[in-house]
């Protein structure tokens, strides 16, 4: 009865009470030997399916971890049908060609490239909504050319990422993970004290990319007594932190570089040997942006040769592959591209994703349109 009431309420919300009752009778007639519960279940699934067919279709190419966290049905929320290409036995191009007339929106995450080839198979697509802040996986020029709108995760994760960046920096400077390993291996008792780390307060921090995340990192590190300067595409008119037009100059005037910018054609390998040499032997680099912003080979070389003091890295050029040289270095802290995530922020992300999709399907401005 409870299930029945829930079902009636659900249907009622959608104005289908009549259909619901007809459907229950229909299933009952077709299957006179079935229990009332089974009849109800079949009616529910038939009608849910029918109702869902009328919802706008949103294509998902690969599983999205946040949907699993918050529960996919909450995001779809009886407003959209998720069309999951990865659950189909059809080859991708065939799946896309079959469904292309009804696909107007794509929901994607950081590890799912939305290429011109994929978009070419989807002539009706008008929006790409991503659960990531970075958009390097989306062919933005192609979207622009086609007039496809793009929405990202906006500032939903800025605080989480900034917390993590500060965590990585403190870990590198104060040797938290390294000394943890020392204790766990029983070396404290046999080898004695562990070498001391370096103080965070007073460090000169260079933020590369002073967007939402860069600002959040700067605010936190100011509170630790650090001084802040930055490099960005343009000087920010209302920001009092010193601005350096060249990242190399910024590095030469800092003890720490924190990479917070987007990966674009302009920023790919922007942090190279020259910049790292300018940062110097006492310098530390933290990367919570994208791996390919740093020339990884050159950074590894600098670490091996002691040309910089250490690194805190959440992102890598060829994830999930990490240069093996880094594993043996206790002046390097590694994490598997998790700076962005906390389950608490997923609820905000859910609201943003739903809000963007709803806005698109009702011809309203997106909540976090890229390029706005
Ligand atoms: O790295 C994660 C993101 O861009 O959201």
TrEMBL record:
Keyword NADP: yes
Domain of life of the native organism: Eukaryota
SUPFAM superfamilies documented for this protein: Formate/glycerate dehydrogenase catalytic domain-like, NAD(P)-binding Rossmann-fold domains
CDD domains per the UniProt record, alphabetical: HPPR
Location of the D-isomer specific 2-hydroxyacid dehydrogenase catalytic domain: 101-368
GO-annotated biological processes: photorespiration
GO cellular component, one term: cytosol
Enzyme Commission number(s): 1.1.1.79
Pfam families, per database record: 2-Hacid_dh (PF00389), 2-Hacid_dh_C (PF02826)
Gene Ontology molecular functions: glyoxylate reductase (NADPH) activity; hydroxypyruvate reductase [NAD(P)H] activity; NAD binding
Keyword set includes NAD: yes
Ranges for domain D-isomer specific 2-hydroxyacid dehydrogenase NAD-binding: 166-339
Keywords assigned: NAD, NADP, Oxidoreductase
PANTHER family according to UniProt: 2-HYDROXYACID DEHYDROGENASE-RELATED, GLYOXYLATE_HYDROXYPYRUVATE REDUCTASE HPR3-LIKE
Family: Belongs to the D-isomer specific 2-hydroxyacid dehydrogenase family.
Name of the protein in its database record: glyoxylate reductase (NADP(+))
Organism: Populus trichocarpa (Western balsam poplar)
